[in-house]
# Entry
Amino acid sequence: MSTKLKVGLIVNPISGMGGKVGLHGTDRESFRTAIGLGARPTSGERTIRALRGLVRDLELFDFYAVKGVLGGDYLEALGITYQNLTTDTVHEITSAYDTQVTVSAMIEAGIDLILFSGGDGTARDIFCVVGDSSLILGIPSGVKMRSEVFGIYPESIPEIMVGLAKNFQGHQSDSAEILDVSETLDTLGLWSTELFGVAKTPRTRRLIQNGKISGQSHSEVGLRELAREIVTEMIPGKLYLIGPGRSAHLLLEERGVKGSFVGVDALVDGVVLKTDCSEVEILSLLERYEKRELILGVIGGQGFLLGRGNQQISTAVISALGFGAIKVIASAQKIGALIPATLHVDLEVSGEHMVFPRYIQVHTAPNRTILCSIEVPARHEAIMVM
# Structure
C-alpha cells in the first residue's frame, strides 16, 4: 500500500477581507479598518472551493491542521478527518505569529506539503519558517497575489494535489518566487513588487499562476496614444470607472487628474468623483449614472483581468454593469507575453447568474486590438457562451 501524502492545511481567516472595501490588503491595522468598513471573511469560502474537489480522493491524503479557523473548521465542514496539531494559537484575531507557530508544528509532524489559504503576506510568513525545505502551495485568497505558489483558481488545487500524491516519490518541484508589495515607494512614487525569496512548489506550471511582472513597459507609446484618444472621446455625463494598474492609470494622467493607481477611481466630465472606490460605492454610482464604462488593465505575467487586486469589481458589479460596458487596455507586449493569450477571471461565488463571453478584445493602441479568450473556474463552464 502506498504512503499517503501528508498535507498540512493552514488558513489565514482574515486574508482578502480588504478587497471589496477598497483596501489593498488586510495586514497589520488594515484588518481593523476593513472590519469598520463592513468587510466580511472570504478565505474560508475559497478554501472550501479548493477542498471540495479532493473529497473523492481522500485515500491519497493525511491532513494535519489546527482546530478552528486556522484550518480545522473547513476540513470538518466537508467531513474530512485530520490530525489536530496542538499549538498556542488561541488568538481571536490571528497574526503572523499564529501562522508561523502552526507551520513549525507541521514541520515537526513531518508533513510533505503545506497547503495554505491566503495572499502574499501569508506566503511570506510561511516562507520565513520553511524557506525552500518544504513544498508549499497556495489557495488564492488574498487581495493581492503576486507570488508563484498559488493555484490559478481555488478549483486548480485538487488536480495539483492528486497528481502530486500519485507520484510523490518521483515528483520534481519548481522554484517559485515569493513576491510582495515593497515597503518603500519606487522612483515614480508607486508601490513596486519585491522579491523576498525562492520557495519550492509542485511542478504543475499549467495550474499555478506566474509571478506578477511589474514595471513600466519599454514601449508605452501606443498605449499612451490610446489613452489620449479615449480621454478625447469621453462622453459628457458618462461615468468612467478606471481600474487599478499602470495601463488604466494612463487615462488619468492624460486627463491631468490624480487617482489612486492601485484602486478603482470614478471619473465624470473630467472630474474624479471618488478614488479607491469600494464595491458598495461602485454599485451606488452605477445606480446614479445610466451611461457608464469600466476600463481595466491586465496583470502582467499573470493575465488576470478580474479577481487579483480588484475584488471591489465583484460579481454584483459585473452583473449590474455587463461585460459589454468593459473596455480592456494593455500594451501589445504584455498580451504577447501571455502564451496562450488568455485572460483569467476569478470572481467570488454568489447567487448571481453570470454569463461570461468566451472572448474579449484588448485594445493596445488606436485602431489596434488583440482578441483574447476568457477563462473562468470550472464551476462557471456550464453558463459560458460563445
Residues 5-202 form a domain with the Rossmann fold fold (CATH 3.40.50). Residues 45 and 349 are 8 Å apart (CA to CA).
